[in-house]
Design a protein that fits this description.
The protein is built from three helices and twelve strands, in the order H-E-H-E-E-E-E-E-E-E-E-E-E-E-H. With 197 residues, it is α+β, with helices and mostly antiparallel strands. It has a single domain, classed as OB fold (Dihydrolipoamide Acetyltransferase, E2P) (Beta Barrel), CATH 2.40.50. Strand 5 (91-93) and strand 6 (96-98) form a beta hairpin.
């Protein structure tokens, strides 16, 4: 057997091993409710993404994307500016893409409700981030009965919560946007935990 065949076999085995490792490390998330998201995040905003720039983190081990959101509504926390900058892991530079399974996906021109807190990403400390990944992002969409907030977690399998619920908050239809905003504000005022329907 010539050397080229050994190299081809080695590459094929490496790809198989990589595929098996990737499947074994697939992300799973325990389902959380609105009460948890409100209590555990310091800033909750609604707005439209106006810009997103991807770059390598400081040790050049991960692509991160800095997203600017024009804020239309602050539901929790204090924000003096009309924009907020959020850092998410993953992104694309040239032909290279880093994808975080179950991570927040924020696209320019789209509107969202974001549940944010400060935290650390590899090579980026103390940044404002969506630490609850896809469960902390609700896409604002037009439904049959008006605006709705649809959790990005509907695209992922969730581990059931303590009550046995595994469906993302609001399900595929999402929550009525105005009712969600009102529920969040009421929870913030009470400082307690109460699940929204």
């Amino acid at each position: 057997m010539d050397c080229r065949r050994w190299v081809e076999r080695g590459i094929a085995c490496g790809l198989i091993a990589f595929g098996a490792a990737a499947a074994a490390n697939a992300s799973t998330f325990g389902r959380v409710g609105l009460d948890y998201l409100v209590a555990e995040n310091e800033l909750i905003v609604a707005g439209e993404v106006v810009d997103a720039q991807s770059y390598w983190n400081e040790p050049a081990t991960l692509i991160v994307t800095e997203v600017r959101l024009a804020v239309s509504d602050v539901l929790k926390g204090n924000l003096e500016e009309s924009e907020v900058t959020v850092m998410v892991p993953g992104g694309t530079i040239g032909e290279r893409t880093n994808l975080v399974v179950g991570g927040a996906e924020l696209k320019t021109g789209r509107s969202y409700v974001l549940f944010l807190r400060r935290g650390d990403l590899p090579g980026a400390k103390g940044v404002r981030m969506v630490s609850d990944h896809c469960q902390g992002v609700f896409e604002i969409q037009m439904g049959r009965d008006g605006l709705r907030a649809v959790s990005q977690a509907v695209r992922h399998d969730l581990v059931p919560d303590g009550a046995g619920q595994a469906e993302a908050l609001g399900g595929a239809e999402g929550l009525p946007f105005n009712a969600m905003k009102q529920s969040v504000r009421e929870m913030v005022q009470r400082g307690g935990r109460k699940e929204a329907k």
